[in-house]
Automatic annotation (TrEMBL), chain A:
It comes from the Bacteria. Residues 1-76 form the Carrier domain. InterPro entries: ACP-like_sf, PP-bd_ACP. This is Acyl carrier protein.
Amino acid sequence: MTSIDEFVSIVRDELGLPVTADDVDLSFDELPGWDSVQMLWLLTILEQRTGKSLSLPDMLEAPSLAGLHKLVVAAR
Amino acid sequence: MKPVVPSDSTPDPADELSRLFSTGEAVARYPRVTELLAAVEPPAFTRACHQLARLDPDAVAAAHPDRPAVTVAITGHGTLSTLVPPLTGELARHGILLRPHVSDFDSYVFDLLDPDSDLYGHGADLTLCVLDPMIVFDEVPVPWRPADVQRVLDEKLRTLERIAATFATASRGMLVLNTIPLPRRFTAQLVDHRSRSELGAVWREANARLLRLATSAPNLVVIDTDPLVAEGIPVTDARMSTYAKAHLSAELLARYARETGHLARHSAGRTKKCLVLDLDGTLWGGVLGDDGVEGVELSDSPKGEAFNGVQRAVKQIGSQGVLVAVVSKNELDLVRAAFRDRDDAELREDDFVRVIANWRPKHDNLKELAQTLNLGVDSFVFVDDSALECGLVRSELPGVAVVRVDGDPALHVEKILRDGWFDTPELTADDQQRVVRYQEELVRKDFLDSFDSVQDFLRELKVTVRLAPVQDAEIPRVSQLTLRTNQFNLTTHRLQQAQVRELAAGPDTRVLTIHSGDRFGDNGLVGAVFTRRHQDALHIDNFVLSCRVFSRGIEQTALAAVLEQARTDGLRAVYATYRPSKKNGAVRDLYPRYGFTPGTEDGDTLVFRHDLRLLPDRPEHVSLHEDLQVECDD
């Protein structure tokens, strides 16, 4: 996964969150329907999709979907 | 996770589900969503669970007012909101709408020990108190020995015992606890095997004590996590536990949610009642019509032995009040010969409530069987190895739960048992008798056919009715009747045992039981009347009767007796309530038929009034033994 669009569509389809590419820079506090538990599901989903190992504490500190996407891209 | 229920229908149900969610039609087409859910497996199921959990239960309820809803309160030690999506999905698979309430982090002790807590305020049908290993290890000092763990476990068990006692008086619903799994990351911290054994022993003693708690408390269920974990599910995910205080793995919570779904089905009165099985490829190998009685596969070969295992499991299920029937495309004589002459068959014809073998479409046979047994087809579980038959039944009779047992017969049992179709908190004395009673019922039907008029039949049937205040030992059965009965259930108020007990003990309320019998045998406890006295009037708040005994004067007899007693007590009127449900249309006119006049209407609820001037006749053919004067002592 490289593109932010692909990333947003995963969040939308897997979690049922009504997000679009316009929302990626919103802080999680402002993101409609978001709560921190979603991050736990995303960890599992993203690791399955990418085959990479992600750091949950780093993810929990990410400010927005864009920040999260950066972490995923940078992960090995 | 391996696919267990294959989908037989094209197009792909997972695609249709995604489309319903992405186009925003999921609320409007919720019934279709629940059908599709029953046909998908993870990961599509997991995805749908998240989407479903985002729907507003009020919006779904408003669009589909007939849908049963179950309120579930969730509390425990760790982060538990992760339980909501799988629970939403599991309940939806059974057609039930979830109304969840998740408590604050680690608040279970306060929630459950204070009868005035918010949790009790929700009036939940099910209260889940999810127990995880960190309940113990968060309080064990470092360094620790098995004795430290034992001390904490003892404290927790004492708290849980108090919780169970408080819950029994504070809630009308069901409390669900679970045994606590023991992760290796703790056992392995003890380097010597002797101490590890000691830890394993004290841990299991605590879990055993927890399980025993459920055998004495009426509204407590303890889900044993051992068999779930033994299916190959990780207990915990170290990262989730450490960083997010989600101490049980998502996989285990999903599996726990499935078990909870079965309990919710019971709370909503949707427990299945009848297991209907195909024969060739399902209960034995080969084709009876081609291979003959001696040729079908049972015992003798590895595959044959696997079919014996299936038959043993079916017999076991049938011994506990589940009706078992056969619907097969075969010659009836040949089928009878197989059950009679194959000494190695585990099942005999009298293990079945009905054996139907002919060449008609199976859905027609199922509809007729439902009529014969006086049950709805939605109380059936249909098992077949043929994709075609499964697909046909699924599309013709959407209420029937369809289980396809394709391929290896060694896997049949797991597939049949997967969804706990018949799960119930406890068996009643009536359950063990049920198959025999239904069989007697079929003899009665033949007897009826030999008479010219129903009146002659009833006279010869020699019906007896006994009406009496409920006894303590009968409370589980009365609760079960309110939960199982749909057709003759005048208000469909489902009552747990504690609620029945409360009504039986109340100063103004009474619970009267109806026992019936006839020349063919005892029908057992078949009905109940719930009354409430208010000033100089009696209110019949509900009246339930088992579908086995309709239309033979029992309801008329019971009602006449209640009215007579009200007059004897000097009351001025009897009010009776009818609240329509999807299933109880047949009794809409019950009260007017016996001299009640229409009174107030409150929404769709009708309240009828009887002025006690002209009482209905008791049917001549029924002899009544009533015991209404004596108050129940306990």
